[in-house]
Amino acid sequence: MGYVTTKDGVDIFYKDWGPRDAPVIFFHHGWPLSSDDWDAQMLFFLKEGFRVVAHDRRGHGRSTQVWDGHDMDHYADDVAAVVEHLGVQGAVHVGHSTGGGEVAHYVARYPNDPVAKAVLISAVPPLMVKTESNPD
């Protein structure tokens, strides 16, 4: 467990369990949950010999509580910061709800990470509703 600081100064909490040389499964939680919601799945795959990683999205769990940066670009960039920090390129990425959208956007935004598989569970598409306060 630890933290990585993103380019815009947000501390992202992550869990990293298992052998460093094992295949990696990276879990992405839904809104408004945290990495803790994946503990049962992480423990299962850990026992099967995998390295398992999960993070708390910005504004969630133990990550910095911020009012801005709640868009898929920032979410994907935060994932990239964790991936780079831990050296877990080529992982299987599993995302639930908003986490599924985060996975899809990460795969599109970071094509140089050869993601092994993307597993999307009841995923929210990687876009946000356009409103006056969210024009982009």
TrEMBL record:
One Pfam family this sequence matches: Abhydrolase_1
Top-level taxon of the source organism: Bacteria
GO molecular function: hydrolase activity
A GO cellular component annotation in the UniProt record: membrane
Start and end residues of each AB hydrolase-1 domain: 23-125
Keywords in alphabetical order: Hydrolase
Protein name (database record): Alpha/beta fold hydrolase
